[in-house]
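Margin note: ligand = S-adenosylmethionine.
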Amino acid sequence: MDPPSNSEQRGKTKIANPKDAIKFIQRLPNPGSQVSAGFPALAEEKTMSQVAISPKLAQLLSSSQELIRSTKGFMPPDEGTALAVSLFNCSASFGYPAVEIGSYIGLSTLYLGLVAQHQRRVLISVDHHRGSQENQQGWEFHDPILVDPVSKKMDTLYLFRRTIDLAGLNDTVIVVAADSQIYANSFREGIGFLFIDGGHSLEQAEKDYEAWVPKIIPGGCLAIHDVYPDPSLGGQPPFILYQRSLREGFRVVVSQGSLRVMKKDSS
Ligand SMILES: C[S@@+](CC[C@H](N)C(=O)[O-])C[C@H]1O[C@@H](n2cnc3c(N)ncnc32)[C@H](O)[C@@H]1O
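Resulting structure:
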């Protein structure tokens, strides 16, 4: 079975000059949505071009640009960059683990993992690697190449591990192949940054919220993917989580495409 398009060669390209790295970031597609990424001054929304991306962050992302481009997944470059900026800037969370629910083949993990490695903290990436409902046969996002020919089940684990290997992130990413709620029940630490991109049914999304959001430390950040205020553009469960977070002491710091990042009240 031919694997999907992860490049076989190691994905890192060293860019010596930070200005080249910034040019790479500026070339990323921006569908015109708004980003408000000013930490700690968060009051005003800014467009992507107004966001200050530090040369260090630009260099981190550009060093793995080939791998990012060739990894299958559900994270467009502008949203991935906004996700990386959010983790980079969520200073209250430094020293605490970052947690991702929904690794798939590791595209969002690259954006988060490169930053976490720079910050010398771990990124715990949780996925049962059996695919969500929409990844199963007969559904819109099914990819037959991801079906294990023996078990006949979806299996993204080996490709996810390959992505982590190629990115040189084995010292940073803790791979958890488990159901997110089962793992949450045994996880007692505070977390600095949580990214929710797992099961997208209302039941599953609410379970993830309830299991993981209370673990976020004051001043920590919550990122939710696939937030569509307009139901004609996408399913509503992530939007429902987003609205709930605003009622429960979070405020938006980044809004890019369907990505929303909120910061937890530090009081
Ligand atoms: C939309 S994909 C994640 C996409 C990924 N973040 C990316 O950037 O490409 C959702 C993932 O959530 C996983 N998932 C769904 N329900 C889960 C659950 N209850 N526990 C763990 N993982 C789950 C699926 O296996 C799938 O890989």
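Residues 73-75, 102, 104, 107-108, 126-132, 156, 179-180, 197-199, 204 surround S-adenosylmethionine (CB under 6 Å).
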